[in-house]
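Bumping with the actual sequence this time:
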Amino acid sequence: MIDLLLRNARVAGQDTLSDLGVTGGRLVTGDALAAGGPVPHEGRFPDFPGQLTAIGEGLLELPTSTRVLPGHGEETTVGDAAKRFDGWVTAGPAVEFG
């Protein structure tokens, strides 16, 4: 059962719409965030600052134990992503996160 479903949420930097959902301590992020950081769209970051804002103001507001289940890449937790967030801001979009 889905506790919360944010349907067709657009994350800056992603051209496609995807369903983001939270259920039982799990967050399904589609192409927004993976363990390595923000996920590029077709190999690039068309709006990296906007994507970071969406992650920081939306996804990282969830409990730190929430598991992040991306559409691509390894899973992480909100707490682990929050610890790495400033590094993503500093590094910028040219860096491969991992």
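The tokens above came from a reply further down the thread. The chain has a mean pLDDT of 76.
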